Known about the structure:
Helix content: under 10%
Number of helices: 2
Shape: globular
Oligomer: single chain
CATH class: Mainly Beta
CATH topology: Beta-galactosidase, Chain A, domain 5
Strand order of the largest sheet: 11-12-13-14-29-23-22-17-20
Amino acid sequence: MSVTKRNFGKLSNGEEISIYHIENRSGAFAEVIPFGAILVKVCVPDKNGTLTDVVLGYDAPSGYEVNGCFFGATIGRNGNRIANASFTINGKEYHLAVNENENNLHSGPDGFEKKLWDAEVPEGKNAVVFSRVSPDGENGFPGTMKVSVTYELTDDNDLQIHYSGTSTMDTVANLTNHSYFNLNGEGSGPVLSQELCIHAAYYTPVSDSASIPTGEIAPVQGTPMDFTEFKPIGREIGENFDQLLFTGGYDHNYVTDNYAPGSLRTIAEAYSEETGIAMEVTSDLPCVQFYAGNFIGEEQGKNGHVYHAREGFCLETQTEPNSVNQKGFHSPVIKAGEEYKTTTAYRFYVK
């Protein structure tokens, strides 16, 4: 196991950026950068033993400075959407930037994925720790928040992402990773034939194309939203079903089974018959956003590849979208001085 670093290029302001290479004993590796605490590569063996990069991304910092699709990004302080770009904590209303319809998406337009983080390689661990201080009022959120994201790769090809933080005021803390996976390899084409299972009997329907949940927690049974058993991502993505029509395909939050605060369990699995690569997702969070890459458009990606719609899928662990404004959802609010601590892991193996 080893962690090494090399030069990745320059930001537009001329600042040099390093890329950290985290490799395990089998030769599988992940690569991460301090700009945005972004996951750039995950290379794991396929059924023939060929190392395959299974996440979409860019070859240089310039791509990540724009990154309209949030490839590999650490999203914070809040992942997903907040209705009307506002919320109230302790009787005080806070306003965020409006960057999608009338709402706020991923805390942007310049959330954690556009910030330069400090990097540290902890002694004796096959990991990289990114940390920063998010000042009071950054992106509209209350409290000064010290936050860290740790990427750790085990010898079982388990990429663990550990998040932690504390704030000086009650605030929203709902971080996630926005990697797009393609188990046939990045740049290989659509993911529609790849199979997915989400361990969730319920999801949160949205009211319209703005993708804000109605507040209902609805059963998936009998609808195209049902992934409780493995099925190809594309099998029902084109069905005449209002939720799929609203969002141009899958872009929905699933309320996963057997949630217990602080307890890791498997929430989703994916598989490519072509490469034999399977992925198991574990998390201690209550929900996951499944996004089928409906709006990827002509993105100049890694290795000269051009990415198009539905050539990657996301499984973003989280609380429900707009949960800060919905009393029936899991709260994303942490108290002043309370430790925010959560883990999500993506384990890869050949099936």
